[in-house]
């Protein structure tokens, strides 16, 4: 049973944490990497083998997967909140932190549900390789668009979900010491004193200038790349090349309300992948 009082307490604590550390982006990435292991061909009935939003990312070996480099920092940030509100499960806490981060940074309210069952040990971790690669050679073969489809369709998500969820790159940065997938170790947007919230550690390359603000600027800058200080991975630029992705990407570049409405639906779907609910 969900303890509403503890959930509300944890929400308030997460808001304070984000205000103090500007850590909203990494909290979003943590929840996405917990959920994104889901394999729809196994199906949620086979919990926890199917992967998904079950909190297994907190265990070795999953947190040590190459794709999760740097996410240990997010676990460390959330641990005191877990200790303070022990009845909020890990899987719920990770998803709560992400949805709260989206909202606090100016994004839409996500229609969230709570009561996820937690994975209880490392034996419930998922094999490496279920999350998308950010650069060629694509482990699934083919091109960037094919890779995104192979990975997200395996989760049971659609082309529209791929484009909407990619819009989360409106916030955050890539770091040389984590993914290594940044063209510069530091940019004018991530250097000392440049953090829009004033409080984050420096360095890395952001997709957008105001990288602690959740908005549709990601689609605008990826569509019309003029600023060499900004990052765009091949999996970002392909959204404006592949004809099916392009339909949604163009819409979101033009209309922030349309992006927010679709993002909220896709984010909620992502947060429920593979979930077994507590009775
Ligand atoms: C479409 C395929 C995706 C690829 C290839 C991808 C790749 C990456 C990479 C390489 C980084 C940099 C990590 C680092 O060096 O610290 C990153 C960061 C990030 N990603 Fe994605 N990502 C994808 C989808 C998503 C989705 C679906 C979400 C959420 C809904 C998301 C949210 C984020 C956020 C918020 C960050 C910033 C983290 C930070 O600032 O610490 N990404 N992503």
Provide a descriptive summary of the structure in words:
- The chain is mainly α and 279 residues long.
- The protein has two domains: 133 residues, Peroxidase, domain 1, CATH 1.10.520; 122 residues, Peroxidase, domain 2.
- Helix content is 42%, strand content 1%.
- The chain is built from ten helices and two strands.
- A two-stranded antiparallel ribbon has the order 1-2.
- Helix 1 crosses helix 3, helix 1 crosses helix 4 and helix 6 packs across helix 9.
- The radius of gyration is 18 Å and the shape is globular.
- It starts with a helix and ends in an 8-residue tail after the last helix.
- 47% of the residues are buried.
- The mean pLDDT is 95.
- Bound molecules: protoporphyrin IX containing FE.
- The site of protoporphyrin IX containing FE has 23 residues, from helix 2, helix 6 and strand 1.
Q: How many structurally independent domains?
A: 2
In terms of DSSP E residues, the strand content is under 5%
Structural class: mainly alpha
What's the total helix number?
A: 10
Mean pLDDT metric: 95
Q: Find the count of extended strands (DSSP E, 2+ residues).
A: 2
> Which fold name corresponds to the CATH topology of the largest domain?
Peroxidase, domain 1
Strand order of the largest sheet: 1-2
What spatial form do the alpha-carbon principal axes imply?
globular
Bound compounds: protoporphyrin IX containing FE
Q: Calculate Rg over CA atoms.
A: 18 Å
Classified by CATH, the class of the largest domain is: Mainly Alpha
Strand count, sense and closure of the main sheet? 2 strands, antiparallel
Question: Approximately how much helix is present in the residues?
Answer: 40-55%
Tell me the CATH architecture of the largest domain: Orthogonal Bundle
- Listing every helix as H and every strand as E from the N terminus to the C terminus, the arrangement reads HHHHHHEEHHHH
Would you identify the regions where 5 or more consecutive residues have pLDDT less than 50?
none
């Amino acid at each position: 049973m969900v303890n509403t009082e503890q959930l509300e307490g944890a929400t308030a604590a997460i808001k304070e944490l984000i205000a103090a550390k500007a850590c909203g982006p990494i909290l979003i990435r943590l929840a996405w990497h917990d959920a994104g292991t889901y394999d729809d061909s196994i199906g949620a009935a086979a919990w926890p083998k199917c992967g998904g939003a079950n909190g297994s990312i907190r265990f070795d070996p999953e947190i040590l997967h190459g794709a999760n480099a740097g996410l240990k920092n997010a676990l460390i940030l959330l641990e005191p909140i877990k200790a303070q509100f022990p009845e909020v499960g890990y899987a719920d806490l990770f998803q709560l932190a992400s949805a709260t981060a989206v909202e606090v940074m100016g994004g839409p309210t996500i229609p969230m549900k709570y009561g996820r069952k937690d994975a209880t040990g490392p034996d419930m971790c998922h094999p490496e390789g279920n999350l998308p690669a950010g650069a060629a050679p694509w482990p699934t073969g083919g091109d960037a668009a094919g890779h995104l489809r192979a990975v997200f369709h395996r989760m049971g998500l659609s082309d529209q979900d791929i484009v909407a969820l990619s819009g989360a790159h409106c916030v955050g940065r890539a770091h040389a010491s984590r993914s290594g997938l940044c063209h510069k170790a530091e940019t004018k947007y991530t250097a000392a004193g440049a953090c829009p919230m004033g409080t984050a550690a420096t360095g890395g390359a952001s997709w957008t200038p105001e990288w602690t603000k959740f908005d549709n600027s990601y689609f605008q800058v990826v569509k019309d790349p003029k600023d060499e200080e900004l990052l765009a991975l091949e999996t970002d630029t392909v959204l404006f090349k592949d004809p099916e992705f392009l339909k949604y990407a163009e819409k979101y570049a033009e209309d922030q309300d349309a992006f927010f409405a679709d993002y909220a639906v896709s984010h909620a779907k992502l947060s429920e992948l593979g979930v077994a609910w507590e009775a």
